[in-house]
Amino acid sequence: MISYTQYIAEIDAGRQENVAAPEIAQRYWSLPSTATLRDVVIVVRQDEAGHRDVNHGFADKLAGRRRP
């Protein structure tokens, strides 16, 4: 999560070019034709957050802990 957030900051600061999103990313993530690299990084970060939550839930269950 941190690396995606840092990448967005690099794009926002102009240190990484915010190029057009590849067509394959537009199709996979259902992004508009105007989508950019920043848009792709945002949806990937959101997806990874979901994986993080599921994985931590499994780990907590295996360890016998309850999540709030």
Could you describe the 3D structure shown?
The protein has 68 residues and is an all-alpha fold. It has one domain (2-62). Helix content is 65%, strand content 0%. The protein contains three helices and no strands. The protein has helices spanning 2-12, 23-29, 37-62. The mean pLDDT is 86.
- Our count of domains comes out at 1
Radius of gyration: 16 Å
Let me know the average pLDDT: 86
Give the CA-CA distance, first to last residue: 21 Å
Strand content: under 5%
Helix/sheet category: mainly alpha
Q: How are helices and strands ordered from N to C?
A: HHH
Let me know the largest β-sheet: none
User: Count the helices. How many?
Assistant: 3
**Number of strand elements:** 0
* Poorly predicted sequence stretches spanning 5 or more consecutive residues: none
The outline comes out as elongated
Residue share in helix: 55-70%
In short:
The chain is mostly helical and 68 residues long. It is 65% helix and 0% strand. It has one domain (2-62).
